[in-house]
TrEMBL record:
It holds the Pfam family Slp. Residues 1-22 form the signal peptide. InterPro entries: OMP_Slp (IPR004658). PROSITE patterns: PROKAR_LIPOPROTEIN. Keywords: Lipoprotein, Signal. It comes from Fulvimonas yonginensis. This is Slp family lipoprotein.
Length: 170
């Protein structure tokens, strides 16, 4: 004897499963304004005056921190962000920018190689160098910043792994 499930039940189960999966992804940490820039840093660097005084939410890998008399600058190699505004570090870089932060920033809290997301306002650009090559860095006056922990980066990722083989545990 075969039991058939009515079609609406299957649809309900499928939609519930999709909703449960979507609920696993963390929400974005910053709210974008309607006029926020949707261009990557390398594109903004080509014509910074076109994007002046507009909001950005950018992120990437921390290259280094420079503390100055009244502010600090964090150089960041930009990566695209996922829906939770986490940098996708396995993607190709999309330019560099400088996050200008008020006051002193402890370099140990912003370690080179760490991943970071910032929300702020574009405030022009500055010519500099990456190695020996000339480079134009967009400047972001930071309102908010977040350095991602390994646990935060792994939240909402699929923990199911499929495979066939033999494993040895020591």
């Amino acid at each position: 004897m075969r039991i058939r499930l009515p079609f609406p039940s299957v649809r309900f189960l499928a939609s519930t499963a999709l909703l449960a999966l979507a609920a696993c992804a963390p929400a974005p940490i910053y709210k974008a304004s309607p006029d926020a820039v949707d261009a990557p840093p390398f594109q903004v660097a080509q014509s910074p005056e076109q994007f002046a005084h507009r909001q950005v939410i950018w992120g990437g890998r921390i290259v280094g921190v420079t503390n100055l008399a009244d502010h600090s600058e964090v150089e960041i190699l930009a990566y695209p962000l996922d829906r939770s505004q986490r940098p996708k570090a396995n993607d190709s870089g999309s330019g560099r920018f400088i996050a200008v932060m008020p006051g002193y920033v402890e370099p140990l809290d912003y370690p080179a190689g760490g991943l970071m997301t910032v929300s702020g306002t574009l405030s022009g650009s500055r010519a500099g160098k990456v190695g020996e090559a000339g480079y134009v860095f967009p400047l972001v006056q930071v309102d908010q910043s977040h350095v991602w922990t390994a646990d935060e980066l792994n939240k909402g990722k699929n923990n199911f792994h499929f495979g066939v083989g033999v494993g040895v545990i020591r």
